[in-house]
Design a protein that fits this description.
The chain is of the alpha+beta class. It contains 9 helices and 14 strands. The strands form 6 sheets. It has a 4-stranded antiparallel β-sheet with strand order 9-13-7-14. The protein has a two-stranded antiparallel ribbon with strand order 1-6. It has a two-stranded antiparallel sheet with strand order 2-3. The longest helix has 13 residues, at 56-68. The model has no long low-confidence stretch (mean pLDDT 91).
Length: 270
């Protein structure tokens, strides 16, 4: 995203809208400026504000005159008064920023909006995780923090060493050049995005090792990581995951049960 310097009147309304804090008023030029390295192309500023088409020269003159007489002339806080916010044509690899940060853009690899995955919430109809297995969702980034693919790769490479299986119907997996080693395409590693979800599957007995590895790596990467882990209950509603998590120090009150009420899309032959 860019700010047209010929239109911007430095009202600052767009600064508060940016979830990454990538917009600031440059006092040297008296205009709003987007930090292109921090901008994740989420389009929150472009879509989150109404637009007016006032003459920027007139608005600057009124604001300057108002300051002389010690009053203010500011537009409503949800308005860009001169339509100065301008989307730019995104080419590879920068375009992956928008794919992972703009919730209105579906991922090409999955056709799903947002982070591009239904996660294991659909497990009862998609059968991603079976009895005796554990499914993990590892979420990177948050508004205000974001994440870069180099930090995601650092974790996926470490998890690959544990022999985990990456979910194929996942946008991050689609960007891997070597899923067996958890390695991503080299040309996207520096790209920053709002957040992403990595999905893996492993045997239940590997759950403690996976949790400990992620916890250790969480102290080393320049982002925040959230982890969800799930399994499929047996016909009596029992599972061995709960006790395993409690022994690792994760209380059961953080858990939930998903009931599959949709159409079954994958038959479990087992």
């Amino acid at each position: 995203m860019k700010i047209d310097p010929d239109k911007c009147v430095a009202c600052g309304n767009c600064v508060a809208v940016c979830p990454m804090g990538a917009i600031h008023i440059d006092p040297e030029v008296g205009r709003a400026v987007v930090d292109q390295d921090e901008c994740v192309e989420c389009f929150a500023c472009y879509r989150g504000m109404s637009k007016e088409h006032l003459n920027p020269v007139m608005v600057r003159a009124i604001r300057k005159t108002a300051r002389l007489f010690r009053f203010r002339f500011d537009p409503e806080p949800d308005i860009c008064p001169t339509d100065a916010i301008v989307p730019q044509d995104l080419a590879w690899p920068r375009i992956v920023r928008r794919a992972f940060s703009d919730p209105q853009v579906p991922h090409e690899s999955t056709g799903i909006h947002g982070r591009g995955t239904a996660e294991v919430k659909t497990n009862d109809v998609t059968a991603r995780v079976n009895e005796g297995e554990a499914g993990f969702v590892v979420e990177f980034g948050r508004p205000g923090v974001g994440t870069r693919f180099r930090d995601i790769e650092r974790v996926t490479a470490a998890l690959a060493e544990l022999g985990v299986e990456f979910e194929t119907n996942n946008p991050v997996t689609s960007l891997m050049r070597d899923p067996s080693r958890g390695l991503l395409r080299g040309d996207i590693l520096g790209e920053k995005i709002l957040s992403a979800i990595v999905e893996i599957k492993t045997k239940l007995e590997q759950v403690p090792a996976v949790l400990r590895r992620i916890k250790d790596l969480g102290r080393e990467v320049d982002t925040v990581i959230s982890v969800g882990v799930s399994t499929r209950c047996d016909t009596e509603g029992n599972d061995s995951l709960r006790g395993m998590l409690e022994r690792e120090g994760y209380a059961a009150y953080r858990g939930k049960t998903n009931l599959g009420l949709g159409r079954v899309t994958v038959r479990n032959e087992a």
